[in-house]
Amino acid sequence: KEAEQQQKLANVVILATGGTIAGAGASAANSATYQAAKMGIDKLIAGVPELADIANVRGEQVMQIASESISNDDLLKLAKRVAELADSSDVDGIVITHGTDTLEETAYFLNLVEKTDKPIVVVGSMRPGTAMSADGMLNLYNAVAVAGDKQSRGKGVLVTLNDEIQSGRDVSKAVNIKTEAFKSAWGPMGMVVEGKSYWFRLPAKRHTLNSEFDIKQISSLPQVDIAYGYGNVTDTAYKALAQNGAKALIHAGTGNGSVSSRVVPALQELRKNGVQIIRSSHVNQGGFVLRNAEQPDDKNDWVVAHDLNPQKARILAMVAMTKTQDSKELQRIFWEY
Ligand SMILES: NC(=O)C[C@H](N)C(=O)O
Question: Which residues form the active site (predicted)?
């Protein structure tokens, strides 16, 4: 009977990378003071025995770090392992446990480069497992449920926290400390309650199988950096980043990706010297940059990041620039993904 049930359940692999979901604090009252990336994947799985009721689960420790320290090489390593598993006929879905700080970047990266319709679900937590009302157990349970569900196929990379199913493209960490941390300007795609998914909408942007990018063809990522716009800003950071080798600069602009008059000449000059200039917005939850509105992008040969926040714009720029150095192509890609 047990063997029969195992055959019916989906095979889900959990790739662990660290983060608060693997964190530990000194006491149960420490919900915000703790060390991330302390607990191994076997212990995490053992902490949620109910997983065995919804899927045949096995874990792999891909790395053990706090997500603010993730590098491009880490991203490539993780994405390549995801692709291998997605190709394997005995894997139905993949869950990635991840710190929440850069979870949105990893989820968007995988959404762009994984050529599969199998569910890939990225999950984290806001409180370590040692804290009162820790959120990691339920988030992980929900992630495995979503990853093992045929209904989740072909919907792009997903993120499950706080009972919501979010698009890995759209979602962003919008609140910290609180468990209601992840939001999308366009709303969640669905809910997951007691292991059952309820879907309400689909992403309109290109992803996974419909993406022109493939992790199997990517062996390195170009350096792309971000500089922040604010009152009294100077061009120092932009110039320094370019001098340090950035192939593209994401301008984390105010409002509609606007650029201070003190910075414009430096960005025009950098573009002439071959650096791509990509205007994004650091407006929380709902930045939306229009071409040729705040700045003459056609004249300057700059790109706009559409609704992507600066950190997501960095991810797309890196992936796009593995294929093209043409600013018009880059702009097309920014509209489509
Ligand atoms: N809640 C978290 O996971 C935060 C942690 N700093 C991380 O991103 O690894």
Answer: 20, 100
Rg (CA), the chain: 20
ipTM of the complex: 0.97
Helices (H), 199-279: 236-243, 264-272
The residue to mutate among 17, 20, 39, having the most atoms of ligand 1 within 8 angstroms of its beta carbon, is 20
- Chain segment 222-252, per-residue pLDDT in tens: 999 999 999 999 999 999 999 999 999 999 9
Do the beta carbons of residue 277 and residue 137 sit within 8 Å?
A: no
Distance CA 52, CA 324 (A): 45
Give CA–CA dist 123/120, Å, rounded: 10
Token pair for 93:
């879905």
Contact 154, 117 (CB under 8 A): yes
Which residues line the pocket of ligand 1, CB cutoff 6 A? 19-20, 36, 66-68, 99-101, 124, 126
